[in-house]
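Anyone else keep sequences and structure tokens together like this?

Example one:
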Amino acid sequence: MNAIKRFLILEWEAIAGILAAVAAIVMHFLHLVESDVLLTISVVLIAVLFIRDLRREGLRERLDSSLQRTEAGIKELQLTIGLVIEHTKLLDDILERLQAPGVDTYPSREALYSVVPEIIASVSTGPNEEKQLLLAALHGHSGRRILIPAAPIPVLEAFDTALLNCIMSSGLGMWAVREIYNITAEDRLNLILERLEQTKDADGYQVRTFSFPDAVAPLSPLVIGSEHVFLALDDPRYYRVSKAFHVKNREVANLVKEYFDSLWNDSRAVTLRSAVGIETDGVHALREILRGSQPAHETAGNI
């Protein structure tokens, strides 16, 4: 097979020309052909070789052009493959973040309020967990709600019990609880004051409030411990939240804590309960705001 390949790649045109030239010379020396015939044969051989070179030159040009196109295509393919790999890595990263186990969504009130007590319990039993609960219950911005459900709702009662246990905790492992409200109705204020009276002996419990009935709808944050964060939407029926997403991430928790502290330290916030106890001046000022005797922005900053 190799011998056949070597036979096929021989320069047969050159070999034929050489043989013809040798034959013409031999016949000339034998006086079989005249010199004019020898010259003619030489010219024909030269023309044949020249034509062969011209044909090869065209073939070489076509090969060069084909190689250039191939190189350009390979470079373009390399760039395309690079972009595909880069985009694939980006999509993988996005998918990984979207599927991260630290992010959960709770599309219903029941699902949301049932999981919070579980997280509070897990943080309570964690030896190195920060016992801190920050709740911004910023309800009431779009009108009144039902103050107390006509029939008990178990998940809400379980949440209230878990929160109360945190508020009333003491000693080693005590919880520090801070709450921010947006109280826009006096009956809601009275209900909150009832709980403040019930928890008057709590050690690490503080409460402040705003009173803005026409505020833009906010997300209500809840921070539990050092890495659990809930951001929730207002419930249109009760003074609760209806749905939320939960992020378990220390950096996100620190960021939301900064947001909570900015609300806490806002000059328009009224203090209802300090670290010492119930602030009667703040309660009186808030009643005046709710009864319309004094605008909130004129009173709150002085309490």
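And example two:
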Amino acid sequence: MARPITLQSGIREFNKDITKYTGMLGGLTADIHTLRSLNPETTNRVLCVMYRGPYFMMQYLKEDNNMYKGTSLFMTYKKFLEYYNTGIQVNMGSRDLAPTQIKGGFAGRQINIPTQQNAQTSQTLTINTFESVGRPITTFTNMWVDGIADGITGLTTYHGLVAGSYDEQTQQFKQIFKEGGKNDGVALEPSPAWEVAEFLIIVLDRSGARVEAACAAIGCYPQAKIGQELYNFNNNGQSQVLPLTLTFNCQFVESAYINDLATRYVRKFAIFGNSNNFNIGAGDAFFANAASASKDALPDGDIFQNKAYYDAVQSNIGNMPVFKADPRAVERTRLKDTTLTPADHSRIYTDKDTKVPFDDPYADTGAEKKSILGGIASAASTVASSISNTLSGQ
């Protein structure tokens, strides 16, 4: 026999047989058998899907006669609420089962019996997000409010799309104002139907692949205008991201139809991922032409220059030892015993027969030689000339 239809039909249901487990009474342990009987619900994985927007705003803001163009204000608003929200609060309120009393008997005793469910009338959906430059969320929300009831006249305008008459011949509503000779376009008779949005609230399981719960928020309209905090100023020198709290008056409903919508949405739009697959998109920086580069291509481009080679460990020749010392003995002929002269203080011996002068440490400064060095320099020059003559065989 098939399972009975419940509020969970079509989404994840509890189907374990836990009658054989002793549960908490048998002692709570972390063995696998006990854990199999425990699978507690966890929270904080909620999606918000705006599947219907306020029709008059969608019509007013459409671009190229397309209500769903990606750059339109409506689609920006919808995307922010769905993908850039920082919190969702569903306030269904109390849904009490109201009792009535039966009283009687000689003792006047009283018993209560249930009669009807009293749902809270002031249900709200709250979505937290942040404002972006250009104030798209504030603009859409506040224009939504103004189009329903103008801030000064109090009248419904739909920002010019409100109908002022009905053409019996064409059986169409006509706008109050229009540009000369042009078609009226969309004209909407004032009605709450054009003023409300609808949201699907979906709760996901830990995998993000299955729906744990779903409800719809219907008849949604803004509770108030938003964004006025932007005008505040303080003297503490702090500038912060502007948070927004969007509260919608609405009515929440649950049913198998809503479960079906939620399941189909998750099946197509669920976002899965693995951090091991995280791609930082650095191909254009690393390779000269990433699209045509071979699989063995190495980093290239202006940001990378030749590999550095001035290192003491000579890393460009690898990390294996490649040099070995010559084991032959080193033999040289030393300088015979020599008595130092003043000229020896301004020259060095490169071998027993060759001397190199370094008599003027200020030669490259442009300064004149000190007189005390003049004699030394002259002597060194004489010695250098003698060495040169010796080397040339003269």
